[in-house]
Every structure is written in C-alpha cells, then in structure tokens.
Amino acid sequence: MSATQIAGRMAGVDAGAPIRQSSLWQDAWRRYLRNRGAVAAGAVFLLILLWCIVAPLVSPHDPNHVDFVNAYQGPSWSHPFGTDQFGRDLFTRAALGGRISIGIGFGATLAILGIGVVYGAVSGFVGGKLDNALMRFLDALYGLPYLPFAILALAIVGTVNFWTMVVALSIASWFITARVVRGQIITLKENDYVRAAKAVGVRWYGILGRHLLPNTLGVLVITIFLELPGVILGEAFLSFLGLGINPPDASWGSMAQDGRDAYRAHPHIIIIPSLAIASLVLCANFIADGLRDALDPRTKET
Amino acid sequence: MAAYIIRRLIWTVPVVLLVIFMTFMLMKQIEGNPFRKSERAVPAAVQMNLERKFSLDRPWYVQYGNYVKGVGTGDLGPSLVLRDRTVNDVVAEQFPRSIELGLLAFGWAVLLGVPAGVLAALKPNSRVDYGAMFFSNVGFALPNFLVATLLIYFVSVKWGLLPTSGWTTWQHKILPSFTLGLVPMAYFARLVRGTMLETLQQDYVRTAKAKGLRWRRIVTVHVLRNSLIPVVTAAAPLLGYIITGSFIVENIFAVPGIGRYYVTAVSARDYSVVMGLTVLLSIIVIVANLVVDILYTVLDPRTREART
User: Fold this and answer.
1) What is the pTM of this model?
2) Chain A residues with a Cβ under 8 Å from any Cβ in chain B
C-alpha cells in the first residue's frame, strides 16, 4: 500500500472533519501574527534594515564628501536628516552606520549563540559533575558587566575592526545564553523519544544532533532578539567612548560621538543616530517578546 | 540549606581565581612589558632593575601567584603611569564617588520604578499600565548618552536649573544619577509588574479576598511582600547595568569615578590600574551574586529543597 493510499484511507475515516495539519513553526507564525505590537515591531525592523541596505545605493550624496559650506544643516528636502560638521549627508551616513552597527550586532549575537550553545549543550548533555562545575561557574559570573572586558579586549588587540568588535562584545556576554541552552537540553533529555532513541542504540551525537539541538532552535531564535539590543547598545557605548570603529567608517555610536561636541547648537547630529539605535533596540525587544509568546505556548495565556 | 550555602561559598574561590587568571592572561597578551615602550626608553640597567622590582623577569605563574596574593591582602599593586601612586590609591579616591552615584541611581529606580510596576499590575491593560510599560520599554531602548545629552541640553543649558557636569554639590548629582537610574527603573517597573500579576493570581490572595480583608491590606501584606522577592534576585543584572552605565554617565557628566577612570587608564596604557579595576569589579559582582543566592534561599523556603 502506498503512502497516498494510506492517507486516503485515513482521510476516509475522518471524512467531514478535515484535519488541519500544521508544524510548530506554522503555529508559531500564526500566533506571532496575532500579536499586533510584535508585527509592527517586525515591520519597522525590516524597514530599518531595508533603509540601511538601499539608501546608500540610491542616495545622490557621497557619504564621505566633505562640504564645509553646507556643514551643520538641519533636516531639509535634499538632506532629510541634515548634515554633520563636515557637511556630509546624514541620511546616507546613518544608513551606512546602520550597516556597521547592525552587522556587528548580528555578528556578536551569533558568536554569543555559538559559545552559549557549545557550553550549554556540553553542560546539559554530559551532566553530572561536569555540569555541576560549569553551572556553579556561571552562577558566580551571572551579571558580570561586559563593558570592562570588551574595553580590555579591544585594548589588547590594538586594532578596531568588525571582527575585533564582534569578539570584544561577545567575550563576556554569553553566560545567560549558555544557561538557557543547558536548561533546554536538560528538559529535552527527559523526553520519551530521547529515551527511545537511546534504547534502540542511537549514538550520543545522533541524539544530540538529531533530537536535542534542533529542539533548542526556538529558544535560540528568541535569544537572537534578546541579545541583539545588548550588543547594539554595547557597540554604541564603546564607540561613544572613542574605542569603536575608526573614521571615515562610522557606526551609529561613533556618529553620536561626533555630535557630542556640537550638541548645544546642532543637537540633530547626536539625536539621529541615537534614535536609530533606540528604534532598533525597541523593535528587537518587542520581537523577542512576540517570539517568546509564539514559540512557547505555555506562556501565551499570561 | 546550610550545605547549599557552604557549597556556594566554596565555589566562589575557584571562580575568583579563574577570573583573575583570565584577566591576568589577557593583560599578558599585550606586547612586551610596560617598561619597553619606546616613549619611556631607559638604560638597560635601569630596565633590569625595574623588571626585577615588579617581578617581570620571573615566570608568569610566579607573577600570577604574587598578584593573587596581592588581591588576597587587598593590595592591587602600583600604578604604572602615575608616579608614587598605587592602584589602591586610585580606588580609594575614585570608588566612593562611583558607589554614591550607583546608590543614588538605585534610589531613583526604587523610588519611581517599583511604584510604576505596582500601579501597572493593579490595573492591567489600563492607561496607567500602558503608560508605565511604554516608559519601561523606552527606558530600555534609549542609549543613556542620548538621555544624558537631552537632559543637559534642556535642564542645564536651556532652563539653567542644574549644573552640566561635575560632582561637588547635590545639584550636580541629580542628572547623572537619574540618567544612570533609568534602565534599572525600567527593569524594576517591568519586573514588579510581572511578579505582582503572578502573585495576584495566587490562592492565598483569593482566600484573603474571600475573608473580606481590605484590598489595601491584601496588596500591602500579601501581594507586595511576596512580589518583591524576585526583585532581590534582580540585584545581579542591576549591578551589571549600573556598572556598564556608569562608564558612559561618568564620562558625559565628568564624574571623577571608576567608570571614567577606567577609560582614561586604558588610553594611558596604565595596565595595572585597568587590571586592578577589572578584578575589583568582577569580585564585586561575584560577591553580590553570592549574597543574592544566599538571601534568596533564606527568603523563599521553596527553593531550599530544590537546591540542596
């Protein structure tokens, strides 16, 4: 009997009552769409991404073109965000800065995820004494501020570029992710299908790679948007302290630093990149909340 | 419970050693040593003496051992840039200001954040709730350098109410502490709202209601007290927010504290100060975690069984 025949028979049994089949992700997607705040946040998030990608390509202004005659201009039709102290168009520069800020943000988030998954999976999967030791270690380090270590890391490497920023921002930021992954693995390990897999002789890497890690995917997607605000702000803080990306490249943080000296006369130079950071962070927080409600049905009622 | 507390205490030691070790090894990665920089070229004999004085001619594990011994006895070593000054001097001078700033920020957070969370939870989905949560979300998202700049721009420059920077009179302390307190405030508001809503669903609250207790009494005696337990455990992330924020806030408002000095020391390549401050901040966080974990076990009997 072929698969279609079986399906046909089963359909026959349930005739009149069509069963809507849907995967976890389809369910989650539907739940997410019901959350208006999260949908709006997602839309704005995508719009910001789109602006960062497209604006520099179509802009008539060269982002590094110095034009002192037009320095410190407020917002206008030809310069929607105005110009900075060198007369450079802030609309284009802010989009380029967004590429760097968001790029570093996602890079560091993925690094945090990578470290966290390895640490958490080893801890949760091996269990026993090793788990105990690794977790006591995390208990003690919980809440360790990442900024001093990021500054230290940058001071040691000596050069600031995309990759050193990613390393600096992830070096002391992965503790929570590791703990979350470990918790998830421990819970999953107790499931009957994992026991069954073990019973039929599936090797440890099969269980880990096939049953445990794929099931942490939902948590990881949430974690991306939980960690993103922190690293985006972290990059901005480092740049604002003068320890970030070097000119002529700029991130939102270093653009804000540019505007720091002229804030009395020309506040728009610091406000625009700061608001870009704030919008992105706000959206990411809402998306994380929406994803949590959508992917973890247990909490959706509250 | 005693067993858990003792185990937790014992675990703190290797973690502190490891953190010092990692910081130490990070610092070792910096090329050469502080006395081989070209800008302070000294005769070979002097250099040898300097290296001997600071044990830089010994193997790394001896240096590490010495450093740990120093930290254990509360001696973070000499500054490499400031003559005649030790890291301890720097800490003694700058740290009290940072602590004061942090405590004042925490004060703002408790003063405004907790009531906002309580009011929001008492009337969920009301205007008060939405307003409080809106401010909480915005408080989380706004970078504190923008908040600081706007406050200086309006309060100090335009309206001339408070000084723009410095750390002398109480007027100087309002804006920096408020800016630094904004994130903890947002955090408290959200956290207290969440735990309050959860507590309000509990059976004993319903029982209290059924008994005919006054609502005000139920809220203060039954709900608020139990809702504030999780707030205690929030101390660790809060401390993290406050330390991170202090780097920026002290920088903008020219508060002569540790956060600002850290950045100065990095630029000046005063590595012993940088290392000392990093170790100090880490130990503070580790000890705070320890205290919180123990406090939590004492406050919430339910966690005792699970943890021992």
Assistant:
1) 0.84
2) 136-137, 139-149, 151-153, 155-156, 229, 233-234, 236-237, 240-243, 253, 256, 260, 263-264, 267, 270-271, 274-275, 277-279, 281-282, 285-286, 302
